[in-house]
Amino acid sequence: MASMTMKLGSKSEVFHRDGQTWLCSTGLPSDLVVEVGEMAFHLHKFPLLSRSQVIENRINDYSSEDDEKCVLQFHDLPGGAKTFLLVAKFCYGIRLELTALNIVGIRCAAEYLQMTEDRGDGNLIMLSESFLNEMFGHWTDTIKALETCKEFLPYSEELHIFSRCIDSLAMKACADTNLFSWPLPENGIAQCPEGNHVLWNGICSTAKPQPLSEDWWYEDASLLRLSSYKRLILAVESRGMKPERIAGSVVHYAKRHLSLLCRQSSFQGRDHAAPRSLVSHPSDADQRNLLEEIVALVPTQKGATPTNFLLRLLRTSMVLQARPSCQDKLEKQIGAQLDQAALEDLLIPNVGYSMETLYDIDCVQRILDHFARVDNEPLDPSNYIIDEGQLMGGSHPLTPMTMVATLVDGYLAEVAPDVNLKLPKFQSLAAVIPDYARPLNDGIYRAIDIYLKAHPWLTDSEREQICSLMNCQKLSLEASTHATQNERLPLRVIVQVLFFEQLRLRTSIAGWLFVTDNLENSQNPNGNLDNAGNNTRVGAVRDHLVEADDIMERVSVLEKECSGMKEELEKLVKAKRGWNLFLKKLGFRSKSKSIDPKKVKSCLLIQKNQSP
C-alpha cells in the first residue's frame, strides 16, 4: 500500500546548494542569512517573517552598525538544516510533500518557529496537524512516523506526537479483525480472491476479504526501537489485550533481537544459531540490557507465555550474566507452570564459575522448590490410588504434580551419569516430589539404577539411602523383574521387591479364582448354563490362570534363590564362629574384624554367578 502524502506550494524549485551554503535564486539580492548548524541559508526577510513569529522577533532585535545582512542563528532547531530547508520552501511557496518520514520534524520545527494561524491562514502548524490526524488512520505510515520521533525529542513528546502514534497503533492492534480492516502493510493486508479489487479500507468489491490472524501486527512491532516497543506493549495492555497475544508479540520481538535466544545450548543437541544479520552484532552489555527489558515485558499470568520460551530466556540470561533479580523472576514464573515444560528445555548447561556438574542442578532445584510452594492442588488420596490393571498397564491420572513427577524422574535419569553429581543433590531433587505423586515408581527406579551404575564407589549405607527414594510396592511387573536381578541394589531392597511382587500376584490370583467360582455357579432360570457367554468368560479366566501359574513358578524360583542366599549367609557366620573357637584353644587371639553383613551380599552374588 502506497504511503500517503500532502502536496504544498506550487512554485518551481529556486534553491540550490553550494558547499555549505544554500542560495535562493529569485532575482533579488539576499538580505538575510540563517545559520543552522554548519549550513548557511542566504534568504530574504519578508517570506520568512510573514510566516514565523520567532523570525520576525529575531529580525526586530537584530542590530548592526554596518549595512551588512541580518544574520540569525537557529542551532537548536528540531531537525537541523534538513528540516529548515523544507520550512523555507514552504515560506517561499515552493512545491514540497509532507510524508510520514518528514512530518514529525516539520511539525516540531513549525512549533519552534511559532508558525501559527496568527501569521496567516493555512500556516505550517495547521497543515502539519491536519496531515498527522489523517496519517494516524494508516498503520504503516504511523509506524514510520513513530520511528522518527526519537530524533526530535523532547519536542515530539511535548507535542504528544509520540503518544498519539502509540495510541493509534494500540487501537488498531486491539481491534477485532473480524469487524475492522485497517489499511495494513503488505505483509498483513487482507487478501481477496484472485481477480478482485481491494479498496483502501480492505473491502473487496466482489467478495469478502479473508480475516486476519491475531498476530498480524507482530512483525511490524518487532521492527520498532525498544523504547517505542515498550510503550506500545504498555498501551495494548492498558486496553485489555489478552496476555497470550502480548506474550506472542514479546516472543516474536525477542527472537528477532536476541541473537543467543534461538541457539540450542544443550549438550545433547546440535547448535542451531539464528540467521546472521547484515548489521554488526551488538555487544554483550547491549544484549544483556535488552534481555532484562524484555523479561520485564513478559506477562506474569500463569500459562500466558510458553514455558520453553521462558526456559530459553533463563538460559540466555545465564550466558549474558543478567542481574539476579531478572533470573529470579524467570525461575519463579517457570516454577509456576513447570508442568508445561519439556525435558530437553530443562537441561540447562552449567555456565557458572565452579562448573561442578554438566547441568545446572541448583537452578532446577530452585524451580522445583518454587513449584512446590505455588502448587495448591487439593490432595485427594483417592485420585492417586491405582488398581492392579493400571499398575500392570502403566496408566495413571494426570495432574500438574504427577506430570512434574514424570519430568523430574526423566531429568534425574539424564543427569545421573554425571560422576560429579553428589548424592545429596540427587536426593534433594527427588525428594521434592511427594510419594503420592508417583503412582508408578518405574521412572525414579530407572534414575536410581543409572546413578548406581555411574557411581560404583558408593558405600552400602549410601546405596540404602538412595534406594529409600523409591517405593518398591509401586513398581510395575517389568521393573520388579529387573530389580530382582539387579546386583547394584542392596539385598534388603531385593527382598522387599520379591515380597510385594508375591503379595500382588497372590491378590490377583485370589481375585481370578473368585471370578471363576461365580461363573461356574451362575445359571439361567431353567437351571442350564448359558454356554455361549460363560464358556467365553471361563476360557479367558483359564488363560489368566495359566499366566498366573507361570508367574508363580518364577516367584517360587526367586524365593528358593533368596532362601539359598540366606543359608549361605548363616553358614559363613557359623564358620566364622568355629574358626574363632579353634584359635582360642591354640592360645591365639583373633585380631580380625567382625563380618560386615552389608558386604555379604556381594560375596553371595559372586558365588551365585560361579555356581552352575
TrEMBL record:
Asked if the keyword Coiled coil belongs to this entry, the reply reads yes
Coiled-coil region = 548-575
Q: Which Pfam families match?
A: BTB (PF00651), NPH3 (PF03000)
Q: Which Gene3D superfamilies match?
A: Potassium Channel Kv1.1, Chain A
Record bears the keyword Cell inner membrane: no
Q: Which organism is it from?
A: Gossypium hirsutum
Name the lineage.
Eukaryota, Viridiplantae, Streptophyta, Embryophyta, Tracheophyta
Task: Kindly state which keywords UniProt assigns to this record, in alphabetical order.
Answer: Coiled coil, Ubl conjugation pathway
Q: Which family does it belong to?
A: Belongs to the NPH3 family.
| Name assigned to this protein | BTB/POZ domain-containing protein At5g03250
Q: Where is the NPH3 domain?
A: 215-504
Highest taxon in the source lineage: Eukaryota
Q: In which pathway does it act?
A: Protein modification; protein ubiquitination
Q: Which residues form the BTB domain?
A: 30-100
